[in-house]
Amino acid sequence: MKVYFAPQSRAVRTVWLLEEISQPYELERFSLGQKEMRAPEYTQINPNGRVPTLVDGNTTLSESTAIAQYLAAKYAPSLAPGPNAENFAEYLQWLHYAEGMIMPPINNYVVETILLPPERRNEANANRALKLLNRTLEAVERHMQDREYLAQDFTIADTVTGHAIIMARRFGADFTNRDNLSSYADRLESRAAFKAAEAA
Ligand SMILES: N[C@@H](CCC(=O)N[C@@H](CS)C(=O)NCC(=O)O)C(=O)O
After folding, report:
1. Got the DSSP string for the chain?
2. Is 50 near ligand 1, meaning CB less than 6 Å away?
3. Is the pTM of this model over 0.90?
4. CB 92 less than 6 A from any atom of ligand 1
5. Which domain holds residue 184?
6. What's the CATH number where 10 sits?
């Protein structure tokens, strides 16, 4: 399997999962913002010129949550509870919470604080994004009371939404008085597979 990857991006989710399930992979490396990500050689593979992209034989996928679902379905079904499992509904809810709720304000915050040239950045927009991010995290803080993982057992909801939570903390989201969220993020960051993905 080949993973188109950039450090400190959503591609870490993909490599983290591959490490968790001990599936061999090779990396095609970019750094975020590198112009080669928009070159035709890559946009033929991923029209948006983003990462991650997974190529497995004749299959190409370029949405990180879909990649996680694909990998779990094919290689590690226990990480993706099925409809008869007790935790099925909460697994779905939290698997999709990253791209649905957490990443949109992170995206806006990154645009307003890093991607735009300083003269085009808007502090009010950045503050609004951070406020919204903090609100989306409150739901996770409440959910994580007396829990180790988002859907009881460790699942791909943790490699996807757990990764978004780790990113939120690194971007400066408010973790004060959020003990459940803090210990959850610590727990994930201490996993060997996560550390291997970060070192990739
Ligand atoms: N919804 C997509 C988002 C992919 C995405 O935006 N990736 C970012 C990195 S986290 C990217 O490649 N950005 C580079 C760019 O926009 O040039 C997913 O979950 O995979």
Report:
1. -EEEE-TTSTHHHHHHHHHHTT---EEEE--TT-GGGGSHHHHTT-TT--S-EEEETTEEE--HHHHHHHHHHHH-GGGS--TTSTTHHHHHHHHTHIIIIIHHHHHHHHIIIIIS-GGG--HHHHHHHHHHHHHHHHHHHHHTTT-SSTBSB--HHIIIIIHHHHHHHHTT---TT-HHHHHHHHHHHTSHHHHHHHH-
2. yes
3. yes
4. no
5. 88-198
6. 3.40.30.10
